[in-house]
Amino acid sequence: MSPRLLVTLLGLSVLWGSAFPLIKVGLEGFSATNLTLLRFLVASASFVPYLLITRQRLMPARADLPSFLLLGLLGITIYHLALNYGSLHVSAGAASLIIATAPAITAVVALFWLGERLPPLGWLGISAAFVGVAIIAIGDDPQPGFNPYALLVLLSSVVTAFFVVLQKRLLAKYGAVEITAFATWSGTAPLLVFLPSLPADLATAGTASIWAAVYIGLFPAAVAYALFAHALSQAPVTLVTAFLYGVPVFSLLFAWLLLGEVPGWLTLAGGILAIGGIVMVNRAQRPRPVPSSLASSRLSP
Predict the structure, then answer these.
(1) Could you tell me if residue 90 is left (phi over 0), alpha (psi between -120 and 50 degrees) or otherwise beta?
(2) Is 116 helix (H, G, I), strand (E, B) or coil?
(3) Distance between CA 247 and CA 259 in Å, rounded?
(4) Positive or negative: CA dihedral 244, 246, 249, 254
(5) Percent of the chain scored above 70 by pLDDT?
(6) Which terminus of the chain is more exposed, N or C, with fewer CB under 10 A?
(7) How many other β-carbons are positioned within 10 Å of the β-carbon of residue 200?
(8) Half-sphere exposure of 262 toward its Cβ, with a 13 Å CA cutoff?
(9) Domain residues for 55?
């Protein structure tokens, strides 16, 4: 790959990795609902100049509105409300590790929804990923036992899988940034029910919480998706997603630097198992190369 693409992918991993600890900073001054609303008001506004400058569409076709409403509800409204509520009681590093299981869950959704087949290695990887999540949920709770708030973070990972699968039909008609913008606007609309309580939080929230909300709205929610779209236009999906394994690494680093969070050995062990399971799923989904002799026979008249 080109050095420019390598820098893009590393920047994407850094931005998404930084989001998890800064969500914790934002939650110190905002409720989970108001932090979600403020973040996506910022993200929604930032997409407008981007689409205008790049001369892309500002509205989807009327026939596709229901699809974008569903995309926004899943990928923005439900995903981020569940993530922010879960982050109230789950460490930033653990949350990023749980979210990282989304590719494995996507494989399960595609199996039943799109009829895609999954080899035994894929099922082994999915099992390993979910066992890893269970270990994270146990190891991240300061009290002995299972942390139920980890299930909210897992819900975010599940709706991400549906969000990805539902985009397949729309990618034939819209650019990646257009889809992200339209889904963001659709997902922000239901969050406006929390608007009456936002001014009160803004009045009492500290400067750090306000800037954290602005940052995660502008960079991880808007700029990072633009980088993701650019990377997908330059490289195969498997290569791009492979670099996203670095997101939890950067999240753990930022959580240590910004919050002083140090993950326990059980959390790290669960994270390693979960990421290893995702790697197995991705390897199982790769098409097998056709032997040269067989390829030659297929090409011969």
Answers:
(1) beta
(2) coil
(3) 17
(4) negative
(5) 77
(6) C
(7) 11
(8) 1
(9) 3-286
**Domain membership flag for residue 56:** yes
Residue reference for tokens 């197995």: 280
Task: Give domain status of residue 117, yes or no.
Answer: yes
Cβ proximity of 220 and 12 under 8 Å: no
Number of structural domains (the chain) is 1
Instruction: Inform me whether the pLDDT recorded for 134 exceeds 90.
Output: no
Average pLDDT, the chain: 79
Residue 27 has what pLDDT?
A: 94
In a domain, 113, yes or no: yes
Q: Closest Cα to residue 81, out of 121, 32, 145, 141?
A: 32
DSSP state of 291: P
* Dihedral sign from CA coordinates of 39, 231, 119, 276: negative
Question: How far out from the chain centre does Cα 29 lie?
Answer: 23
**Interatomic CA distance for residues 205 and 149, integer angstroms:** 24
- Interatomic CA distance for residues 250 and 243, integer angstroms: 12
Task: Give how far Cα 245 sits from Cα of 10, 51, 213, 259, Å.
Answer: 11, 29, 24, 22
Identify whether 53 is part of a domain: yes
Note whether 36 and 214 are within 8 A (CB).
no
For the chain, counts of helices (H) and of strands (E):
16, 0
How do residues 164-200 score in pLDDT, each as one tens digit? 777 767 877 888 788 889 999 999 999 999 999 999 9
What is the C-alpha to C-alpha distance for residues 264 and 187, in angstroms, rounded to an integer? 35
140, 150 contact by CB (below 8 A) = yes
Are 284 and 129 within 8 A, CB to CB?
A: no
Q: Which amino acid is at 130?
A: F
- Answer yes or no: is pLDDT of 295 > 80: no
Structural tokens at position 267:
């959390």
